[in-house]
Structures are given as structure tokens and as C-alpha cells.
Write a structure and sequence with these properties.
Blueprint: H1 6-11, E1 15-19, H2 27-36, E2 41-45, H3 51-61, E3 66-70, H4 75-84, E4 89-91, H5 96-105, E5 109-113, H6 116-124, E6 129-132, H7 140-146, E7 155-158, H8 167-171, E8 179-181, H9 187-191, H10 195-206
Parallel strand pairs: 1-2, 1-8, 2-3, 4-5, 5-6, 6-7
The structure holds 3-phosphoglyceric acid.
The site of 3-phosphoglyceric acid has 11 residues, from β8.
């Protein structure tokens, strides 16, 4: 399983699914359903007890997936996620310990930012790819568009409250490479094992942008 660059990660498809996996047995069929629908990067949030095991299982069993970890809040979790097999890491915010962990690991890191000041802290750390989070409540596409002129070297993955209906407006921005969202893997569809429904949502998401 080769390393992926941050731009490969962000341009493989228009949507990175944000997954919350409550039952380990759902991990592989969920990942397969999304990959079948054309979405390969999969962000597994570290919000559930089985998240690290889910990352390890997907890494081992679903070769078409590019599995990563989300909701990574500290360096210890960063390292645990990479050890489990995460090929990229997403966090809701930018902290010095996460910057150091990302540097040490070499794994693509998408920290959440909203303001120009946060982006500039990232630039100082050598980063120019970010998650724009929480996207819809932080001013929507207009807010991110306003960062394009002064911070034109930066590209973003807006995430947070985005839906199939709102995604196109984000994807149309010149500084957006992809969006993140949980809408392609709804909790009720995961709970009921409705993998065809998730494949259909993924297929529709793949066709965006
Ligand atoms: C998150 O909760 O990490 C993100 O906001 C993705 O979830 P959403 O698409 O439901 O906002």
C-alpha cells in the first residue's frame, strides 16, 4: 500500500466521506460500498471505540480504499491512527503538537481552519492544504472564496454540514479541491446494512464537481 500525497488525496474524487463506525463488523462492507460507488479516500473518525480497529481492517481488507483518520485531536491519537494503517489524518483544528506529529510521520495532514490567521499559522508550519471547518456555519462558500485572493497558494476541503445539494457551490470555488461529508454514509443506512443505498449515494457524490 503506497503513500499518497495530499494533492492525490484531495483530487481522487470530489467528496471524502466522513465515517462514524459504531460496530466493527460494518467497517469492511461500508468501505466496499463507498469504493464501489467511486469514493476511495475514507475518513474514519476517532469518535467510537472501534475506530482504530476499523481503520486497520479497512486498510487490510479493502485495497481500493485510501483509509484515513478524522477527529484526531492530539499527537498520541495521530500516531495511533498511523500505526493502525491511516494513510492521511484530518483534525478539526490546527495545534502545534499535531503539526509536529504530522512532520514526524510524513502522512498527509488536513487540519481544520477558518480564519486567515489560522491559515497563516499553517503556512508558517509548511502547510498549504487545509480542511475548512465547520464549513456551512463559518460563512459558507462566500467566506472561503474571500480567502482566495490573499491566500492564493492554499487549497481546501470544506467539511461540516455539507450536503449533496450544497456541495456543488463549494466545489465551484477555485480554492476547493474536494469536500468532506457524512451525508454519503448516513447512520441509519449503516445501522440497517443498506450497502446498496450507500453505494448509490457515493455514485451520486462521485459525479459532483
Ligand atoms: C464532522 O462531523 O466531522 C464533519 O462535520 C462531517 O460531518 P457532516 O458532513 O455531517 O457535517
Amino acid at each position: 500500500m503506497g503513500a499518497v500525497s495530499v494533492d492525490e488525496l484531495m483530487t481522487t474524487g470530489p467528496v471524502i466521506p466522513v465515517l462514524t463506525i459504531e460496530r466493527l463488523e460494518d467497517a469492511v462492507p461500508l468501505a466496499r460500498a463507498l469504493v464501489e460507488g467511486g469514493l476511495r479516500p475514507l475518513e474514519v473518525t476517532l469518535r467510537t471505540d472501534c475506530a482504530l480497529e476499523a481503520i486497520a481492517l479497512i486498510a487490510r481488507e479493502v485495497p481500493g480504499a485510501i483509509v484515513g483518520a478524522g477527529t484526531v485531536l492530539n499527537a498520541a491519537d495521530f500516531d495511533r491512527a498511523v500505526a493502525a494503517g491511516a494513510r492521511f489524518v484530518v483534525s478539526p483544528g490546527l495545534t502545534d503538537p499535531l503539526i509536529a506529529a504530522a512532520r514526524a510521520s510524513g502522512v498527509p495532514f488536513l487540519p481544520g481552519v477558518v480564519t486567515a490567521g489560522e491559515v497563516m499559522r499553517g503556512l508558517d508550519a509548511g502547510l498549504n492544504r487545509f480542511k475548512f471547518f465547520p464549513a456551512e456555519t463559518s460563512g459558507g462558500p462566500g467566506a472561503l472564496k474571500a480567502l482566495q485572493a490573499p491566500l492564493s497558494q492554499c487549497r481546501f476541503c470544506p467539511t461540516g454540514g455539507i450536503t449533496a445539494a450544497s456541495a456543488p457551490a463549494w466545489l465551484a470555488l477555485p480554492n476547493v479541491l474536494c469536500v468532506g461529508g457524512a451525508w454519503v454514509a448516513p447512520a441509519d443506512a449503516i445501522r440497517s446494512g443498506d450497502w446498496p443505498a450507500i453505494t448509490a449515494l457515493a455514485r451520486a457524490a462521485s459525479a459532483l464537481g
